[in-house]
Input
Amino acid sequence: MPAVPDVPGVPSAEDLAALPHAELAARLAEAYRLIGKLTARVEQLERAARRDSSTSSRPPSSDGPYKKKDRDRSSRERGKRRPGKQPGDPGMTMRLVDDPDERLFFPPAACGGCGTGLAGEPAVAQRRHQVTDIAPAPVPRVTEYVAQAKECPCCGTVTEGELPAGVRARASYGAEAHAQAANLVAGHHIPVYRATLLLCQLAGLAVSAGWMAGIRGKAARLAGASGFTERVRELLRDAPAVHADETPARAAGGMRYVHLACTAYLTLMHTGDRSSEAIDAGGVLPGYAGIIVRDGYAGYGHLTDALHAWCGAHLLRDLKDLYDFEPGGQDWAAQMAALLIGARDAARDARHAGQAALGAPVLESLVTRYRALAAAGLAANCYRCTPTAKDARRIARRFLKFEDLILRFATRPDLDIFTNNEAERTIRPVKVQQRSSGGTWRTIEGLADFAIVQSYLSTAAKWGISKLDALRDLFNGNTWIPSGLEPAG
Output
């Protein structure tokens, strides 16, 4: 028997041999208990260290910049196109214009052969070159509106002329200045001070940082008064499927949430806490009878009038996390992921073929294999006590309990609802704005204004309207409002 090394605080082999059997057994049991606890903790820490955006809900920006990414780390379907410009693509080569603002001629002064002067000779050929550049910031164009008053020759009443709707203050900036400023702050999430410098340098205006800080609030009030929010809310309630999500945002020194309901062509955000009451405050989901595509957050559970669809991307990441950490013991997770991806592709093919449902044999086979794999995952981890096995049991039970939600995409292949990526893409500007503005909004009202303006700009962009054009319409009093669930044609 090898000798036990002397370690401070640890009894030697001789000391252990001299102990009564009962005390030795007790110490051995305590040692095994501690070893089990530490082993579980090590496993937990190792899994946490291995997690990244491909195996959890962490954003890709949180992945370490020096960690080499696996080629198969993404659950996205790989495209068949090579990177870069595709064969036959016309590209974006800069073209010559027919009516340049200025044309300069450079004839030869003398013959390159004999040196004879060519000043009076006609050109026999020419080659055009053009340079497109930005002109220096122009002097701002100032328009004066004079409200004249006239006295009636009959009754003596003095009447003053009415100014246009946008002219109120004695001196103010016009609609284009407001639109350009809002495009910098709200459209591109540039911090207020830097946006002020940019507008002054590029447009030749002398706006203040305080004026720039209030531009989002002005846009929010105009959008709110136009009926845009009510129109989008009404359209969303008629949509066959709505994507829902929420994300935390720090405001006024506390934690708030931005809630989202959207489709591929509509966006509506509002703010509140994370409660079911705050979810309902958006006015879209209470009583909604379509399909709500969401993640696993239980706060949506009270919306019983609608059918629910669980985001497949979240499920694939959870399964990948299990299998990557314990390939030998979690084969069921890899097989379940492959089953979901295969079912996703079958639903997509049916949708493209105009089919409203999968064939009965295909769907029956899918459900049978799904239940068998979920049961196998539960059985394989039922009597194991490791943290990974505990997570595996939780995920397997989720697949068994929420079968209808998880397979909703397969029972409704006519709708593209396998993932909630539409909502995650749409709500991402909250994090972009948060990073650019120091991680917080100063006031709750500022966050609410952000939600209204982002709803307007996001919806316009989904309809192919640039943010700047949408803001021009807004500040000119012609707020753009969607005409339906999606563009005609």
Observations:
- The mean pLDDT is 88.
- The two ends are 84 Å apart (CA to CA).
